[in-house]
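Subject: sequence -> structure tokens, single chain

Hey, anyone have a minute? Need the predicted structure for the following. Not urgent.
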Amino acid sequence: MTEPARLSLNTATVKDQWTLTECIEACVRHGIGGIAPWRDKLIECGVDEAARRIRDAGLRVSGLCRGGWYTVDGRLSDAVVDDNFRAVDEAEAIGAECLVMVVGGLSPGSRDIVAARELVAEGLQRTLEYARLARVPVAIEPLHPMYAADRACVNTVGQALDLCDMLGTGIGVALDVYHVWWDPDLAAGIERAGSEQLLAFHICDWLVPTNDLLLDRGMPGDGVIDLSGIKGMVDATGYKGLIEVEIFSEHDWWTRDPDEVLRIMVERGRSIT
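Reply:
Had a minute. Here:
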């Protein structure tokens, strides 16, 4: 059983219904222990104001979404580097336990995924040098291979850990079940990461059928992912972080009363052993 105090609300789960302030207040109302803001919601609220409200509510910040996108300009541009530095500053200001990185896919017009991955490694190194000074852990989020072209050319836990091992301290992995549940090497990857490199754990579910590969995630328990099994692997590492619920659901959960969404989120959390 996962008690609500162990859960964290990723603000994407109710992105169309609530502001960050409303999300913070609702976490307190439902007994949820943490929050994970997206940067647009954070900026809308104001970083300092958000930090104060989160602190006053007694919430942990399981992560800030997101940095990365190193390949968007076809090179490691000053604009991309500077944006990632700002993301580090924002994560530090709100006490985020990690900065989640969606690293970017192929550069515009490119078919060279090897070059994309080299650019990602370079970008992560630049960000990490800055993040270490701020004591903000950087968490690579491997995305499902269907996103390799446009969102993330790092697609397995093993790939992410290879980058971590190459880059050194202060970097680890954000494990999102939506992206990694299918991986035949998942158990080995989680064990390899251990509690030191496993920085975040995100849950939702994979629906069958899935009507939109980006915007049709399921609430935990509504799909085919073995959430209890994966949580067991994560627990075995000694992971003590929050369990973050992140659901993109344009035609279902984003249309519902947000308090109902959180009530069901808490209920489903309790069903995950």
